[in-house]
Structure formats: structure tokens, C-alpha cells
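Why do we bother with holo predictions? Because pocket geometry can differ from the apo form. Keep that in mind while you read this record for zinc ion.
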Amino acid sequence: MIERVEQLRSKAEAEIAAAGSAEALQELRVRHLGRRAQLPQLLRGVAELPAEQRAAVGAAANQARHALEEMLERRAAELRSAELGSLLESDRVDVTLPGAPPQPIGRLHLLTATRRELEDIFLGLGFTVVEGPEVETVHYNFDALNHSPTHPARAPSDTFYVAPPAAAGRGEEDGASPGASGAASELVLRTHTSPMQVRVMESHPPPLYVVIPGRVYRPDSDATHTPQFHQIEGLAVDEDITLADLKGTLLAFARAVFGDAREVRLRPHFFPFTEPSVEVDVSCFNCEGRGFRADGARCHLCKGEGWLEVLGAGEVDPNVYAYVPTSERNAPGYDPERVQGFAWGLGVERIAMLKHGIPDLRLYYENDLRFLEQFG
Ligand SMILES: [Zn+2]
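The structure, written out:
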């Protein structure tokens, strides 16, 4: 009888060890341990055995049943782990592989990259970046910047009017200050970033150190003019500000952009909203300011001048402060007897053209990848 138990046990063990799936194991469990299986039946028949055999056969059959149950559990666990392993193997994703199809890595447009580079320079000098509206009132675009009523920049040939210049030149009210009548209805696409000068002063008390990047618009289109372009305005207002502070600030800017050996020079000029006004030149980085190259050829970049014109600037005209009403937000206000300031406006396109030798402004906007991919 005991041999019979051992036979059943070893046969079942061999089959369980060979089982290849959870389903096969379940079938083996039924075949060897189920109600009709031989081992349980044998166990049930122990009572009918002669007394001297009962204990030994019962113990062997019980042992065999426990052993098989344990073995079934173990084998099931092995199969589960093997299945998980093969699933992980077949489902493996290598996240380091490039996407399919591989996508080219994008880059910033040269103008965006240049604007950010310039912003970083001025942030490093203690300026804050602010932005303003591109659709602007005539008040902020011209009047508050001290432009006379007859200033040529106001002409529709030089400025995009959004709303028609209804009141301009009609003399609706005798003696009305320029732009005061109908000013609210006169909207333009801003021709420079300078309108933000008065807007910022209206909402912030001095001392004020801001740069204002943004798009501006003028009805021009040729190799050196596009109807839309980008400027970065600078405005500093504080006590004891002089033209020397302007020059020092722009020298730091010029050296950061064009190299440590650069110098700047200021030439007298005129802008309605700065007094004195200057054009700012940077010594040419292409010829080290000599005007000619090492081989004796005239420098093509500065055309032999040794200097490159980069921007317009000046001390804020005291008249401009008169357009900044004192309010709670900007108290104590901008008293020209107490504060002075300087301002500049630079063209982002021009800086990038000089720095990268770009011959035609329109290249920026044609979106030809052969051009754009050379930068950044
Ligand atoms: Zn040069």
C-alpha cells in the first residue's frame, strides 16, 4: 500500500515539475488531488485497512498530499515569475532611443535669441524688463514724447494709423494742445517702444531702471527697413543721473555684445524727447576700429569709418516729465528739478545684422531654414 502511495506521489511530482503553464498546473491539481483522484480516494479508504497498516499508510498518504500541494504552489509561483520575466523582456522600451522618425531639435529664431541676449545684459546691469501695448494712442506715441504737432513722423506715410487721424490738423478747438482733441480715438501701431517711457513712469515712482523690448511698426520696406521690427527701449530715472551714466551703461552693453575691446562714442543728434540727444557709435569689431583690415583692405562693415552706429539715446527731456501726472502709484512723482534720466532705443535687427554680418533685413522674416539654421 505504501509503495502505491509513493508511486502516485512520484508520478505526480514528475508531471508537476514538467508543467509549463498555470492551466496545466490546475489540471494536474484536479487529476492528483481532486475528489476523484487516486490519492484522496486512497486516503479515504485508510479506515478500511487492517489496523496495523492504518497509521503508516495514512501518514504516507497525508505526507504525499501535503508535498504535492506545496509543490503545486511552488511551481505556480515559478511560472508566474517566468511569465513576468518574459513579459518584461518582450515589452522592453529603451527610452534612450530616438523617436521614430527622429525629430530635428528646434532652435530660437535669431531675433528672439538676440533679444534675450540683450535683455540678459541689461538685467545684469540692474534693469527690469517691462512690456507695453503695440496698438498705442497718439498721446503716448507722440504727444507725451514732446513731438510737435507738425512733426513729420506723425504723417500717415510714416505711421500706421489704426483709427483715422480724425482730429489731426482740423483745428477743432482753437489753441488746443497738440493731440489733446480726439487723442483717445487716435490709435496707431506704435512706431517705437518709447511710448512705454511715460506709461512706466505713470505707474512706478523713481528711481526707475527698465528696458522695454517689443515689436514696432513703420510703413517702410527695403533691404534695411521692414514694416515690422524690434526695439529695446531703455529708461533710467534717478537723482544725479548724467550723460556719463548713459555712456557707461552703453559701454557695458557694447562690450558684452561686441567684445571687451570695444569703445563707444557719442555724437550730437536730435530727438524730440531727449535733451541733449546723441547717436551712439561702437568701435568696429571687424577691424578693431582702424577702418581697414590687416591686409590693407578697407573694412566693409564700417566702410572704413572704424565706428558702427548702433543706437540713439539721450538725457530725458524735462518736458517729458510734465506728461507724467503724479498719482498715488508713482508718488512722489517725477519732478524735473529733482530727478534726471537717460533713455535709448536700439534695433534688435540692427544689432544682430552687425554681429552676424547679415546683409539684408528681409532674411529675418522669409523663414528660409537655410538661413535660420545657421544660428543658435
Ligand atoms: Zn570696421
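Confidence is low (pLDDT under 50) at residues 167-184.
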